[in-house]
Amino acid sequence: MNAMRDLSAYISTRAHAVDASGIRKVFDLAAKLKDPINLSIGLPDFDVPEVVKQAAIDSIHAGQNRYTQTQGIAPLRERLHRDLSAEMGRDVGEVLITSGVSGGLLLAMLAMINPGDEVVYLDPYFVAYKHILTVTGGKGVAVDSYPDFRFHADRVEKAITPRTKALLLNSPSNPTGIVMTQAEVDAAVSLAKKYDLVIISDEIYEPFLYTANHGADRGKLPSPARLYDRTIILRGFSKSHAMTGWRLGYAVGPAEIISQMAKLQQYTFVCAPAPLQYAAVAALDVNMDAEVAKYRDKRDIIFNGLAKKFEMVQPDGAFYVFPKVPAGTTATDFVTAAIEKNVLIIPGNVFSARDTHFRISYATTDEKLRQGVEILNSLV
Known about the structure:
The chain has helices at 13-16, 22-30, 50-61, 74-88, 100-112, 128-136, 153-159, 182-195, 255-266, 274-283, 289-306, 331-340, 366-378, and strands at residues 37-38, 94-98, 118-123, 139-144, 164-170, 198-202, 231-236, 249-253, 320-321, 343-344, 346-347, 358-361. The protein is an alpha/beta fold.
């Protein structure tokens, strides 16, 4: 009998190519601390609205616990199609209910990307982008957006090659909180048309808009889908309705692509959680403006509280700010010092090629935010 191989020999090169999330490492550390000031997690501190909880309970009791169609239940898809078509001023195409926006991202890449195909996005970027591309055999091309974190069309254009298949946008942005202006969206659409690219628009934080230029209610986000029919919109309920554990998102776009995503979902996720899809229909009728207004206030607590000590770009949306660490240190070292003071934040190199900034999530209580501001200022 041959000697048994070490179990590491069974691990795929694909798995080895993906690093464990730096965010998850902080989560693990948080579990070991007593009552930390946790400014690390992108998790709303309000709860799922009661009417939505009750709708989920009712759907469970009504027996809506079996598989749904792979693409999702008709009432939810039809409502989303109607609402988004009205918002974008055109027929937005097909709707697929996904297991979160992360599930939608994975399916989009599986449906579109061949080995060696490139997808361009801005640096800093949501942590999953490059790893999902690694898993699907593609190549992520990150375009530096420092120091203002804006969409610079000239920089993006230089990154486009004959292998580029898609432009991946994230507005409002995780980790910077930047919201693309209409002029920036126009420039992105012009590049997509010029180079025959699909735009994947990650809009999970769409309700969280804080400036007068963008409005504070739904329907005001400058989205490329208004101008360009080769756009895949990715949105969901995790942030808007605090349904992070429910894993409900949706992908909307050209039928040719969405149908392939649905086919791949059949053999992976199968379908999004059935009773929760029925509850999501109820969620669409719940006004969340009060929660968004509270998060604008939280943004101000963090930004105004740190502005004298840290170099920052004021976020226009989402619930993150991305300050620069003091001169003479790295983000990793600064975050280590903060954790020693019981404040959990995320080093910028989790989201970027640079280790010069750190991400704060202000999705926590105002009291915790003020405590965190005091400690972070004391470290400078």
